[in-house]
């Protein structure tokens, strides 16, 4: 599909077809929807495409749960990066960012899914949800604190993860964190505050910002899939480090989350092509 035809199709698109969001090494699958949270437009920095060191201007961007924002992001990426534009044109289904889980539930789920195969993690998560009256809607800080480490171990949660869950719930109970303040925090504040929770690192926060909060301009520089995608996209000999990632993907601003989504798709398509060739 030519660039012109792609842009025309995007401008005429209505509601996108259903698609699932998946990431390389993503810890958590999308849960069943139990509550609705409202994301507010956020102010982010927009960098000129002609100069990597401009005086930034401030624009208001809606979250990626808005289809119009995704359409705008795709137009921007098609124009700003010809190589990425080719990847976008090769994928007929645009990204859809959907989540109605509360921030607390999303973070608890991320902890439970850590370092586990998806099937095993889903089984433990379902057992965890069954501990609370009302299912997912009953997963609240007070209720999580009330479940002992012994009870959590009985459903397959390790002692270490039990301590992580209790630490998260404790920070909510003390007022250090709340769903409301998390929705208002800047990206930098989220990384600072959430990494203070035991068991939550920068990668987990990046995934949380993209797939739960739908922040538009997140570049997960530590994600192996995104790094591999950037390596293949630009024909690099080695995996790029954080600084090189920032430099190469600067042109994607202010929609680096969407650019990262396509890096996962690029790696998936490359794997599929290699599998076909080997048969």
Task: Please explain how this structure is put together.
It contains 14 helices and 2 strands; from the N terminus they run αββααααααααααααα. By secondary structure, it is mostly helical. A two-stranded antiparallel sheet has the order 1-2. It starts with a helix and ends with a helix. Residues 11-22 have a biased composition (Low complexity). InterPro entries: Alkylbase_DNA_Glycosylase/TA (IPR051912), DNA_glycosylase (IPR011257), HhH-GPD_domain (IPR003265). GO terms for molecular function: alkylated DNA binding; DNA-3-methyladenine glycosylase activity; DNA-7-methylguanine glycosylase activity. Residues 1-22 are annotated as: Disordered.
Task: List the defining traits of the structure above.
mainly alpha; Endonuclease Iii, domain 2; Endonuclease III, domain 1; 53% helix; elongated; DNA-3-methyladenine glycosylase activity
Quaternary assembly: single chain
Structural class: mainly alpha
Give, in order, the helices and strands: HEEHHHHHHHHHHHHH
CATH architecture of the largest domain, by name, is Orthogonal Bundle
The total of beta strands comes to 2
Strand content: under 5%
Helix content: 40-55%
Q: What is the CATH homology-level superfamily of the largest domain?
A: Hypothetical protein, domain 2
Separation of the first and last Cα atoms: 28 Å
* Count of domain modules: 2
Count of discrete alpha- or pi-helical segments spanning 4 or more residues: 14
Average pLDDT, all residues = 83
CATH fold assignment of the largest domain: Endonuclease III, domain 1
Task: Kindly provide the radius of gyration, computed on alpha-carbon positions and rounded to a whole number of angstroms.
Answer: 20 Å
Give the neighbour order of strands across the main sheet. Answer: 1-2
Q: What ranges have pLDDT less than 50 throughout 5 or more consecutive residues?
A: 9-22, 24-60
Sheet having the most strands: 2 strands, antiparallel
Global shape: elongated
The CATH C-level name of the largest domain is: Mainly Alpha
Pfam families: HhH-GPD
Protein name: HhH-GPD domain-containing protein
Region (Disordered): 1-22
Family: Belongs to the alkylbase DNA glycosidase AlkA family.
